Amino acid sequence: MIDKDELLEALNFDREVETKTPTKYTTTRQTKIRKATGQMSTAQARERNDPLYKRMIRYRELYYKYRDLVHRKYRPGIKARARR
Q: What is the rounded distance in angstroms from the CA atom of residue 57 to the CA atom of residue 17?
């Protein structure tokens, strides 16, 4: 279960971070809560050695592998078209 103090700490952390460029949109509180709960649930799953977490990581690695293969395959033609 996500602790209320941890959630508030994560939400306040976003306020303290200074960015080099201003954002193009305003981040709502709901977005911050959704982002914080996602990060915290992933961290908790990692700590508990959850099999679903291991599956998620495995498929993420496969996604990046296949994405790189697709990029390598189509990159030369796309670069030529982008220069036009």
A: 28
